[in-house]
Design goal:
Blueprint lengths: L3 E4 L5 E5 L1 H10 L7 E3 L7 E2 L40 H26 L13 H15 L4 H27 L5 H18 L7 H22 L5 H9 L5 E4 L4 E4 L5 E3 L12 E7 L4 E9 L7 H10 L8 E2 L3 E5 L2 E12 L2 E12 L2 E10 H4 L5 H6 L1 E3 L2 H16 L5 H9 L8 H15 L5 H15 L4 H15 L6 H15 L4 H16 L3
Antiparallel strand pairs: 1-2, 1-3, 3-4, 5-6, 6-15, 7-8, 8-9, 9-14, 10-12, 11-12, 12-13, 13-14
Helix pairs in contact: 2-3, 3-4, 4-5, 5-6, 11-12, 11-13, 12-17, 13-16, 13-17
């Protein structure tokens, strides 16, 4: 029977058509039970569901609610045209993906609030921005709009591709463990969500895409979080509240960087020497360290010499490989730095030792952690940069050295500083330095070669030639008594130093440099 008419959702009327065509439209989902139809010979519209001839077909496929697309001829387009809008099942699937993204946004927001909950591999990650971006993607899917679905799907694919260079960065930083597994889980999570967002997806495809999402979610939680182990719990127990170490007498400060904590005295966590003033730990990276301040031992006059002492008494490490020594700036003072590596329980460790001298007092910081995390922003360099000295004692020592160099011409500045480091007082007056230098040269004489002895005798003769004749015997007698460790009065030391200064200033620059070289050699031999 022909003459049937049907009214579409946009108000357009199609017909006349026969009952077979109307039945085909219903099967294809182009119309549903609510679509108005007009029987042949009637002038009234009634819902299609009330047509007795079609009641047996109402269990067939139905469209959600949207009208069919129209072709250029004004007739409905073929069956495939009706698939532009998601079906009711597709809308449910899209909204579920949006809800999953909202849950992920909440997880990222938690890490923005407590970044310590994430694996150390992701330190410095912009968790707040990641949370806001994930939130925006989730909200875009909730209305079920096709445009939002397409945009979010493309965004998820872009995120998945962007994780590859991020993985390269982690590998370059030495990450080989849980961090890479967590990143792989996030990649699988983003890829799985994108696989859940095509226009249509059967039950088999839904199951195949949903399984990676579930596995990836567990993997991101399992490998991306920072579990608290026994070491971390111990650090928490012994952690001190202070974030700065200060010694006003030395003018020394250590600003403890983010991630590091100072430990209470007496803790069993750090193997430190008895002279350690402070012990430290980096619980996220498994790092430890200590700060030493002490009077430099006799004979230690340079930062290089004190660094030798610091690294010589640290804990013995099997397979230790020392690197190159370099200069290090610590506040207003220059020090020396040494990096070393070794393998402990299959994990390569890196150590940094930075040492300096402030006058006659030495200070150093020694810290170590796994090499994979040592270069992180809160790693070894951050701790070393926090150490600073104002050089209060160095200023006093420099003034004393300058006075000695001016009053005793045969002593260079390094020789004068080394000579002071060998004394108990650590600071000498010019007359005291003069007497000690003569003693040191007398002890060197037996070890000199014939050529050196001949040259030194010539330099001594040239020096005595500048002394007035009446004072030569007194100076020679004084030098002989000093060499034999006889007692002399401070006034006599000062008088003889002044006589020698006048004579040495008359030497040529070349001869004076050679004389300084012999005295410096003698002083260094005293160590």
């Amino acid at each position: 029977m022909s003459g049937w008419k049907v009214r579409l959702g946009d108000g357009s009327e199609i017909g006349p058509m026969d009952l077979v065509a109307l039945r085909t439209w219903l099967m294809q989902g182009l119309v549903d039970g609510d679509s108005p139809v007009m029987r042949p010979g009637s002038r009234k519209w009634a819902p299609l569901a009330t047509v007795p001839e079609l009641k047996g077909m109402m269990g067939a496929r139905r469209k959600a609610a949207s009208p069919p697309a129209r072709g250029r001829s004004g007739r409905p387009a073929p069956e495939t045209a009706g698939a532009e809008e998601p079906t009711a099942v597709d809308l449910w699937r899209v909204r579920v993906v949006g809800a999953v993204l909202l849950v992920a946004a909440a997880a990222f927001g938690t890490l923005a609030w407590r970044p310590a909950g994430a694996s150390p591999a992701f330190d410095g990650a912009p968790w707040l921005q990641v949370a806001l971006g994930t939130l925006a993607l989730g909200v875009a899917l909730l209305p079920g709009w096709d445009l939002g679905r397409r945009v979010v799907r493309v965004a998820l694919l872009l995120v998945a591709f962007a994780l590859f260079p991020l993985a390269g960065i982690l590998i370059a930083q030495g990450e080989r463990g849980a961090g890479l597994l967590a990143l792989a889980s996030v990649w699988l999570f983003a890829s799985g969500l994108a696989a859940l967002l095509p226009r249509t997806l059967g039950r088999a495809g839904l199951a195949i895409a949903l399984l990676p999402v579930l596995v990836a979610g567990y993997g991101a939680w399992r490998f991306g979080r920072m579990p608290e182990g026994e070491a971390s719990a111990g650090v928490t127990e012994w952690a001190a509240a202070e974030r700065r170490f200060t010694d006003d007498m030395l003018g020394l400060t250590l600003d403890i960087p983010e991630g590091w904590v100072g430990l209470k005295p007496g803790n069993p966590l750090v193997a430190a020497p008895a002279e350690a003033r402070l012990t430290l730990a980096q619980p996220r990276h498994g790092g430890f360290g200590y700060l030493v301040t002490e009077p430099a031992p006799r004979g230690v006059a340079t930062a290089e010499q004190y660094l030798d002492r610091v690294v010589g008494r640290r804990a013995q490490r099997a397979g230790l490989e020392a690197g190159q020594r370099v200069n290090a700036l610590m506040g207003s003072l220059a020090g020396r730095r040494l990096e070393s590596t070794w393998i402990e329980e299959g994990v390569r460790q890196r150590e940094v030792a930075v040492a300096g001298l402030d006058g006659w007092l030495g200070f150093a910081i020694v810290a170590w952690m796994p090499e994979a995390t040592a270069a992180r922003p809160d790693g070894l360099d951050a701790l070393a940069r926090g150490l600073a000295a104002r050089g209060l004692l160095a200023v006093r020592l420099r003034s004393a050295v300058d006075a000695v160099v001016a009053g005793v011409p045969h002593l260079s500045a390094p020789a004068a500083e080394q000579l002071m480091s060998q004394s108990q007082a650590r600071v000498l007056e010019p007359d005291q330095a003069f007497r000690r230098s003569i003693v040191a040269l007398a002890r060197l004489l037996p070890s000199l070669s014939k050529d050196e002895t001949r040259e030194l005798a010539g330099l001594t003769t040239a020096t005595y030639a500048g002394v007035p004749w009446a004072d030569r015997s007194r100076l020679a007698s004084y030098v002989e008594r000093v060499r034999k460790s006889a007692t002399t009065r401070p006034e006599e030391d000062g008088e003889m130093a002044a006589l020698m200064k006048t004579a040495e200033e008359r030497l040529t620059p070349v001869r004076r440099l050679r004389l300084q070289a012999y005295y410096e050699k003698a002083i260094r031999a005293e160590n």
